[in-house]
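Lab notes, practical 5.
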Amino acid sequence: MRIVGLVGLLAMLIACAPAQAPQTERTGGLGAPAASAPRRTLNMSLRTEVEHLMPKIPGNSNPSLTTRIFNAEIAIIDAKGAPRAYLVEALPQLDTDDWRVSPDGRMQVTYRLRPNLTWHDGQPLTSTDFGFAHRVYTLPGLGIFSPTPQNLMESVEPLDARTFVIRWSAPYADAAALIDSDFEPLPRHLLERPFSAFEQDPSTRDTFIQLPFWGREYVGTGPYRLLHWEPGSFFDAAAFDAHALGRPKIDQLHIRLFGDENTVLTNMLAGTIDYAPFLSMRIEHSLTLKREWDPTGQGTVYYRQGGPAMILNQFRPEYADPAAILDVRVRRAIAHGIDRDALNEGVFSGVGFPSDNFVPAGLAHYESVQRAILHYPYDPRRAEALMIEAGFTKDREGLFASGTDRLRFEIKASAGTENERHLQIMAQEWLKIGLEVQAIPVPLAQSRDIEGRHTFRSMHTRGGLNAGERSWTSDELGTPQNRWRGENRTGWSSPDYDRVFDTFMNTLDRSAREQQVVQLHRILSEQLPAIHTHFSSQTMAHVSALRGPEPGLANAGVFSPETAPHWNIHEWEFR
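Output from the prediction step:
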């Protein structure tokens, strides 16, 4: 979602200042102590600018890399994908006084905050800040906050300064940790007055959403508090003494924004950056860094199975061109024409994670899904047979046509070396089976056009599906009426899928939920609104002196939440 003018930052990536030469004794970005003193500043890279620091506001550029640093929630997801109590003393447990379920499905869940919590400005963080957040998130007309989970909350009622009750209108399995699209508190002492003005006069909406609070004057509850944000250049942050899980061991952060991966690599090699989180570098950069570091033990490079990467198929008849893409047999032929091994070698130098299953290997329900779904291995003969079955024949050049009209598909992807190589390999393989597919890289500025993500002609690649299984529901359909903000970009809609998903969201028993997830993926594999090609190979790197970073788990859908980036950053330290 784009928040126009929210902090005056807009979409062009701006490269940082040139890398400094290596230094034996560095002071860091915030004037750290002299060379003889222990290092107190962590220098971190960030590949793209962000628009805000509030997790509840979806962004264009993966803002979680910064929002984790400045925010805390009810729970946090650790490196194994398990929720841990964060702002609360303990997570509510089902079938106890803290989590009651009525016969009609309504729930009452009680949360008790840790003692002596404060905001970064020193003001107390209390249960009223959660009640106020619910009031803000649910008021019609703002249109900037992700709708879940507050769309199922009937009320948020403070009982005392540290205790509040959420009354739910239906069963909600993630009620203990509130990890689905987040439910962060909001500082009532800072936002009450401007929000009340909006409640009384809706014409002040822009004034509210453009408050400096959301950006350069942000006040949160996370491990670090914002000192300075220079748009397009850097963030400076200081350890928050009153952090719920203890004061961070590293005193200060200097987060530098880089316009491209080459600059990140240069700075890692030069020693001016200590930590490059996921999405900072591509595979080729990480391989170069690994070759340089491994002989000397200068640092560590990690690879992990990242978010799902897929080809979205256009289901909206008014945009589908050629209309053949609406035929499931054609979509299956396209799927059989994808050589995932060739993609892994050509794009990821063999260190990728090819898969036709949306669920990552290693998760508890992976094998069940793997057995249930329809698979489309690389099989040119099967692809050709499906095209003929769908009524198409090859012309004199060996390409499929309908009568005298050749089928001309197109596939779009955001411009970039990795994506463009991906497109080229797939287009070459499809041509071998008689499918003419034009590969179209989309420039960065154009790729951020929300409407264009939904109104493509034939196919469009997508990575890191934020909402997982929820993304394929009818409720997530992007339309002109909702300003194309839904996660379902294909226009595909299935009553069967919606029914199973609704049941899944209203089921609390984990084994039953697992079977429902299996059903969801079976439907996706049968109808192919998207064709899964691989999981992105994400790389993270840090100098050997830094202890604590863990790769964790990437986005795996609503059933298996993603590990928060640098989830344990408050525990990191320099050796």
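Observations recorded by the TA: The domain at 305-536 is CATH 3.10.105.10 (Dipeptide-binding Protein; domain 3). The CA atoms of residues 13 and 306 lie 23 Å apart.
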